[in-house]
Write a structure and sequence with these properties.
This protein has about 400 residues and is mostly helical. It is built from 14 helices and no strands. The radius of gyration is 20 Å and the shape is globular. InterPro entries: NnrS.
């Protein structure tokens, strides 16, 4: 039986053997392209490029629902195999799902008409939720059902954004985009709560990981979902003092989690400090958002970009670097250049939130170049891993 399974897997091209392979590679390449195009458009280098709805609508959708969702798909389609003990999506079904994601990216880039654009964009997240939910239901794994709920909520936010696009309503687009972004932050908090303590313990050879705190994790999830729903409703888009207790509670809870996971040894291990710093941007972004609601910060965009680049981008790059090594059978020792990639991404966040308010063009250009450098380094050193078999001869 094992021999037959092995022969069946060998008949599949390595790129299509498990979800992380095409989606991590495609997502990382798109991270380079998407930020490059957006920066070029903002700085006036692409006057003739007018995607459906304009470049701002494209940027609002494609970073959370194109780039981030690709990495989420790759992670979940791979992780569910470990969670359930059942084979993950592979072969032509995986290629078809990735093809749908890719066609949706190309359609918007190259000016497809709105009906075709919607037909390609809308199904992906529901399909991903269905695939994940079916795997979990088969073994009745209740613990991971919240992930399916978050995916369906993200699909609703994407539909809200695209509804705003069809109507030409900027405010509706913003509601969908920002709600989706905070739902991705909620996913980072769920997955981070599981992997950061474990990775820290394994990476530093400690006796055991930080003790789990399920009630704290549940409270963080519920408050995070509440914040996302407030953005979807539009209530969080205007300064409101009544939102301060929610925001400050989340700042405190995320801070407690970070303190609970912290070990001074992380600074010797790039795969660890990159992940801890990415998570640290989440309470910082929430604190910045709280100051905006209190009237002390003039631009809420700084908070959104601290979270989008620092938390989402930082967590994605750190997870890509570690998960890709583990699932291709390699030692958990990234190429030396990845340390520079992690540092480049942190500098990109600092340039976006600290330099842009004073020198917009220079800050945006520098931040974009640093982001592109970070993900280009990842692609340079990791692309071959996705296109070749595991080095240890195991399936996957």
């Amino acid at each position: 039986m094992q021999l037959r399974d092995r022969q069946q897997e060998l008949a599949i091209a390595p790129l299509w053997r498990l979800g992380f392979r095409p989606f991590f590679l495609g997502g990382a390449l798109f991270a380079v392209l998407a930020i490059g195009l957006w920066a070029a458009a903002l700085l006036g280098y692409l006057p003739g490029w007018q995607p459906v709805g304009g470049s701002l609508a494209w940027h609002r959708h494609e970073l959370p629902f194109g780039f981030a969702v690709a990495i989420i798909a790759g992670f979940l389609l791979t992780a569910v195999q470990n969670w359930t003990g059942r084979p993950g999506l592979s072969g032509w079904p995986l290629a078809a799902l990735f093809g749908l994601w890719l066609l949706a990216r190309l359609a918007w880039l190259f000016g497809a008409p709105l009906p075709l654009l919607l037909a390609l964009q809308l199904p992906f997240l529901p399909l991903l939720a269905l695939l994940l939910g079916r795997q979990l239901w088969t073994v009745r794994q209740w613990r991971n059902y919240p992930l399916v709920v978050v995916l369906l909520l993200m699909a609703s936010c994407e539909w809200l954004l695209l509804y705003g696009l069809a109507l030409g309503e900027d405010a509706v687009q913003r509601r969908g985009a920002l709600a989706g972004l905070w739902l991705i932050a909620a996913l980072v908090s769920i997955i981070g709560g599981r992997v950061i303590p474990f990775f820290t313990q394994r990476g530093l050879n400690r006796a055991e990981p930080a003790a789990p705190r399920p009630r704290l994790d549940l409270l963080v999830l519920l408050l995070s979902l509440s914040l996302a729903l407030l953005f979807a409703s539009g209530l969080a888009l205007q300064p409101s003092l009544w939102l301060l207790p929610l925001l400050l509670a989340l700042v405190a809870l995320h801070g407690v989690r970070l303190w609970h996971w912290y070990d001074a040894g992380i600074w010797r291990v790039p795969l660890l400090w990159s992940l801890h710093l990415a998570y640290a941007w989440l309470p910082l972004a929430l604190l910045a958002l709280a100051t905006w609601h209190a009237g002390w910060l003039s631009n809420a965009s700084l908070a959104y970009h601290a979270m989008a680049l620092g938390t989402v981008g930082g967590a994605i790059l750190a997870m890509l670097a570690r998960v890709s090594l583990g699932h291709t059978g390699r030692p958990l020792q990234p190429p030396v250049a990845m340390g520079w990639a992690f540092a480049s991404l942190q500098l990109a966040v600092l340039a976006r939130v600290l330099l842009v308010p004073f020198a917009p063009a220079a800050g945006l250009g520098l931040s974009s170049l640093l982001w592109i450098a970070a993900f280009a380094l990842f692609v340079r050193y990791y692309a071959v891993m996705f296109c070749t078999s595991r080095v240890d001869g195991q399936p996957g």
